[in-house]
Amino acid sequence: MRYATRAEIIEEINRRVDPRVLLERIGYHPESIRELGTILKCFCPIHKDEKFPTLLVDKGKRTFKCAVRACEANRGGNLIEFFALFEGQPPTLQTAF
């Protein structure tokens, strides 16, 4: 029997996460999330934006990216990495389980 690699496990978990549910669970009200096709657009909780919805979450790819260059979320990543940033965890620890 072949065991899954860490990367495969992370990808499987990321694939199962519903981006809208994740945003709602971390405190977003459903009405504050704009849906543009497969993209969810909202205020970025990483740099605490309250003026412009700069966070883009791709529902199909299960990825995120903030449009603000100075924001740590600007580098983007998967939903697990987004949750780690939101929780203040270093990106290298987000998958420690």
Description:
The protein is 28% helix and 18% strand. The chain has a five-stranded antiparallel beta sheet with strand order 1-2-3-4-5. A hairpin with a 4-residue loop joins β3 and β4.
What structural category arises from helix and sheet content?
alpha+beta
The description of the largest β-sheet is: 5 strands, antiparallel
Sequence of strands across the biggest β-sheet: 1-2-3-4-5
Q: What is the helix fraction of residues, given as a range?
A: 25-40%
Mean residue pLDDT: 88
Number of strands: 5
Characteristic terms for this protein:
97 residues; alpha+beta; 3 helices
Could you give the topology of this structure?
Blueprint: H1 6-16, H2 19-25, E1 34-36, E2 39-42, E3 55-58, E4 63-66, E5 77-78, H3 79-87
Antiparallel strand pairs: 1-2, 2-3, 3-4, 4-5
Structure summary:
This protein is α+β, with helices and mostly antiparallel strands and 97 residues long. It has helices spanning 6-16, 19-25, 79-87, and strands at residues 34-36, 39-42, 55-58, 63-66, 77-78. The radius of gyration is 14 Å and the shape is globular.
